[in-house]
Amino acid sequence: MAIARAILEMGMGNDLHGKDYTKAAVRAVKDAMHHSSLHFLKSFDLDRNSIIIHVKIGVQDPKSVNMDEIKKIIPFENAQIQVEEGGLDVVDEEMDDALVIASAAVEVMLPILNA
Fold first, then answer.
1. Which of 22, 98, 104, 106 lies deepest, with the highest CB count within 10 Å?
2. Contacts of 50 (CB under 8 A, 6+ apart)
3. pLDDT reported for residue 73
4. How many Å apart are CA 19 and CA 60, to the nearest integer?
């Protein structure tokens, strides 16, 4: 089945204290998802199982992101999640603390009918 990108949204999330990359990543994905509404899917009578969601997240420590926490917030079964190095850590050496910033891109891929 051929697919095409129907929606691309970007988001940003952070964790102010604690250097929790998962928390920042979840917030970034939620931010991206809240920029769109997928009500049109019902209008076109598309099967939810034919919709693929690509999620790409950037943080400074990709291995520390709990993928299960990301999957929990995506309302579609066919979610493909990729975490890579990106985002930003803002270190406060005086306070021995860091602000963690994550970036996310969420793509909604739909089947191309009659392709």
1. 104
2. 1, 110, 111
3. 95
4. 10
Q: What are the residue ranges spanned by the domains of the chain?
A: 3-111
How far CA 52 is from CA of 47, 67, 92, 96, 114, in Å, comes to 11, 17, 39, 41, 18
Strand pairing partners for 8?
Answer: 107
Per-residue pLDDT of the chain (115 residues; tens, 9 = 90+): 788 898 999 999 999 988 999 999 999 999 999 988 777 777 777 778 888 999 999 999 999 999 999 999 998 888 999 999 999 999 988 888 899 999 999 999 988 877 5
Task: Name the H helices within the chain.
Answer: 21-33, 40-43, 67-72
CATH number of 3-111: 3.30.1330.20
User: How many C-beta atoms surround the C-beta of residue 63 within 10 A?
Assistant: 8
